[in-house]
Design brief:
alpha+beta; YaeB-like fold; five-stranded mixed β-sheet; 41% helix; globular
């Protein structure tokens, strides 16, 4: 059984995405987008290799599209580490310059989500 760990950065991304959806579009869109992201996280637990490698991300990082956002993660042994949740139009190469991926090895405020 896999376990899912969400980094502090990814958790902050998640809060930002949902706050934006609520503020700009209301509760209905907040619920809709929350369901999209929840489903993507469940997909990862059920099939950790579902995401694809991308040229703008170093391996072993994978990307899974969830609505207009991309979950960036890696799988190590029986653990899935969700590193960031970024809008698909963001420049990932720019985001990960300057050692950001190196700092991700030491996840901040990990949140453990077990498969139910």
């Amino acid at each position: 059984m896999y376990r899912l760990i969400i980094s502090g950065e990814a958790y902050d991304d998640l809060k930002d995405v949902l706050n934006f959806a609520y503020t700009e579009f209301g509760e209905g869109q907040w619920n809709n987008y929350k369901n999209i992201l929840d489903n993507a996280l469940r997909q990862l637990l059920n099939n950790p290799l579902i995401g694809r490698y991308r040229e703008d991300l170093p391996q072993p990082y994978r990307a899974l599209l969830a609505g207009l956002h991309v979950l960036i993660y890696r799988v190590q042994d029986e653990t899935i580490y969700v590193i960031r949740i970024l809008h698909q139009r963001m420049d990932f190469t720019y985001r990960f310059k300057g050692g950001t991926l190196n700092s991700l090895r030491n996840l901040q405020t990990p949140i453990l989500v077990n498969k139910q």
